[in-house]
Amino acid sequence: MAAFAYHRDRDYENARAAAQRYLDFYPAEEDAAYAQYLLALSYYDQIDDIGRDQGLTFQALQSLRAVIEGYPDSQYAADAMVKFDLAFNHLAAKEMEIGRYYLARGHYAAAANRFRVVVEDFQTTQQTPEALYRLVEAYLALGLDAEAQTAGAILGHNYRETDWYRDAHALLTGRGLRVEATGDNWLSAIYRQVVRGEWI
Asked: Residue 188, SS3?
């Protein structure tokens, strides 16, 4: 109840401390799942907008995972999964924000590296279609046509009905390029795995 009261009053540090004390002393009690959930919420409810440091987002993800894995049959697991997905998407959005910043200033290699992180590490988030499109933009600007074409091919395979794919298709064909996986690069490996099912 102390953890709940602190959390209700937005005293997140004391809410975390009270919840952690309960977990330390009563890890097998019926209310342990709720204590872990409150601990996770005390991080999650402090997640700032994507322009700020994401340390709390990482801590929220770890604590939400503890609810999901430690108490999968509890009434808090489903909500923890929803919040985990939202926090995960939040991290991907941060990478996208930084990537767009670099792209707008002509730092194409730095931008491509950020978009690559989204495609490789956050591919289940809603940021992935834009990340693939931005890779097409960045790689075309760098003169890396094969990488741009392959990013477009992955985008077309997974998100054909989106504006991101239509814009990528127009960019590529406007340069006389086909939307196809070509060359031997990191995106080609993803294309072979995801589209063709070639894992070796």
From this structure: helix
- Parse the chain into domains and list their residue ranges: 1-105, 107-200
Cβ-based burial of 73 (10 A; exposed 0-12, middle 13-18, buried ≥19): exposed
Long-range CB contacts for residues 127-130, cutoff 8 Å, separation at least 24: 127/89, 127/92, 127/93, 127/95, 127/96, 128/92, 128/158, 128/159, 129/155, 129/158, 129/159, 129/162, 129/164, 129/165, 130/96, 130/164
Rounded Cα distance between 160 and 174, Å, is 18
DSSP 8-state secondary structure symbol assigned to residue 1: -
Q: How many CA atoms lie within 13 A of 146 on its CB side?
A: 9
Element of type H or E holding 60: helix 55-70
Q: Report the top-level CATH class of 1-105.
A: mainly alpha
Chain segment 67-125, per-residue pLDDT in tens: 999 999 999 999 999 999 999 898 999 999 999 999 999 999 999 999 999 999 998 89
Please determine, for residue 177, whether its predicted confidence score (pLDDT) is greater than 90. yes
